[in-house]
Design a protein that fits this description.
Layout lengths: L7 H13 L2 H23 L8 H18 L8 H20 L4 H21 L5 H8 L3 H12 L5 H9 L13 H19 L3 H12 L4 H8 L3 H21 L4
């Protein structure tokens, strides 16, 4: 099954690139789909500190767009946008990690929270409350809230990237690029992640579902839950750290 754009000129450029690897056709496609990069960069950048230059995000995203164009096969039966968005987002995340913009103190706090989740779940046999988590960290609950707020804009890592990619419409199996073993590993990770998400406290599960599956903003989730956007951000951050801790205990991150 072949999915081609309805626009005649765009279809011609895809055909020229697909059949002859024409460089001019590739450049045309890059320019045409560049708004997609800006859209994804804007979504990623919405929760980042103002010190992160949006231009850097877009520059990194362009590499993901180019990779998507070079890997895309018109015969695989999937829309290009569906194929490209996870690759653009992944390239932006890779660029962020290379910038190393997260303060060491925040990294340390994130690791400490993850470690506390693992230790307390092993000790209690259940998910810890915020008060129990704060006590284990030897800080006040109000300080834990400050920690989560500081960590909130730094949860750009392999797990967050994987969850975000899962929010995109799934392409047919034969449209996935990479080796067969990589495809199997991706499926296994996705399955294990979903299984671990089911074990999270109800509010954490709900926030992850509304944000990644339903595409709601933090503000919109706040309206659903009847709490502030800031509180939703903290819950989201705690959910991601909790999930990372669970996957880490299973040797998956």
């Amino acid at each position: 099954m072949s999915i081609v754009p309805e626009d005649g000129d765009l279809q011609m450029q895809w055909t020229r690139w697909h059949n002859r690897r024409n460089a001019a056709a590739r450049d045309h496609l890059i320019v045409h789909y560049s708004p997609l990069v800006k859209f994804v960069a804007g979504r990623v950048g919405a929760g980042l500190p103002s010190s992160v230059d949006s231009g850097d995000l877009i520059s990194s995203g362009v590499f993901g767009l180019i990779d998507a164009i070079e890997r895309f096969d018109l015969e695989q039966g999937v829309q290009f946008e569906t194929f490209a968005v996870p690759r653009i987002r992944g390239a932006i995340y890779d660029g962020l990690r290379q910038l190393d913009w997260v303060p060491r103190s925040v990294r340390s706090r994130a690791r400490n929270v993850e470690k506390s989740f693992s230790e307390l779940e092993h000790e209690l046999g259940r998910a810890p409350s915020d008060d129990e988590l704060a006590e284990h960290l030897r800080i006040a609950p109000t300080e834990l809230s400050k920690w989560l707020s500081a960590i909130a804009s730094t949860t750009i890592g392999p797990l967050d990237r994987a969850i975000a990619a899962g929010a995109e419409p799934m392409a047919p199996d034969n449209a996935v690029s990479g080796s067969p073993s990589a495809v199997v590993e991706d499926r296994e990770l996705s399955h294990l992640m979903r299984e671990q998400i089911k074990k999270l406290p109800d509010r954490e599960k709900l926030v992850l579902s509304l944000y990644y599956d339903e595409g709601l903003t933090l503000s919109e989730i706040g309206e659903v839950l009847g709490v502030t956007e800031s509180r939703v951000s903290q819950i989201h951050t705690k959910s991601v750290l909790h999930l990372r801790a669970r996957l880490g205990s299973a040797g998956l991150n």
